[in-house]
Amino acid sequence: TIALTNQLSGMTYESMAAGSVIQVVTKTYSQIAAVSTTASTYQAMGSAFELAITPKYANSIIVVEVDSGMAYATSNAGLLMNITKAGSVMYSDNYPFYHRDTSGNLYSPVHLTAQGVAGGTSAITYGVSFYCDGSGTVYAYHGTSSYNIKLTEIKQ
After folding, report:
1. Alpha-carbon distance 32 to 88, whole Å?
2. Which of 4, 70, 79, 82 is most buried, judging by how many CB atoms fall within 10 Å of its CB?
3. pTM of the entire structure?
4. Using CA atoms, how far apart are residues 22 and 56, in angstroms rounded to an integer?
5. CB 130 within 8 A of CB 141
6. Beta-bridge partners for 111
7. C-beta of residue 149 within 8 angstroms of C-beta of residue 64
């Protein structure tokens, strides 16, 4: 077996302590078009807003952080957003991000975070899904704003 070596410290990944950061992958994205829906069920933001990681260990914790520079909802509609793992929402019983506007278009930055066990060493894709709670249109991404996603693998 060939041991992978961390070039900065000379440590092998196998000898790293639990809680050590194994790898970090990031993506920054911007597009002109907004991403919106009127649907009352989860809709994926799209593949441009996804990022994959290939874990080194099946039992690693993957921490997912997402920042969408501007999100908004039209009057009296609620925006519900959730991080996805392989296309499925990670938190189905709560509101990871919920934004309701009763007066018009109120813009807000969004920060979402989630974590879970990798469950294997094949590539895993993470992204965001969202839906409209009420009547109106919700926007998970305002065109030309910044979207950032970061995946961090942590050894257990």
Report:
1. 26
2. 79
3. 0.88
4. 8
5. no
6. 67
7. yes
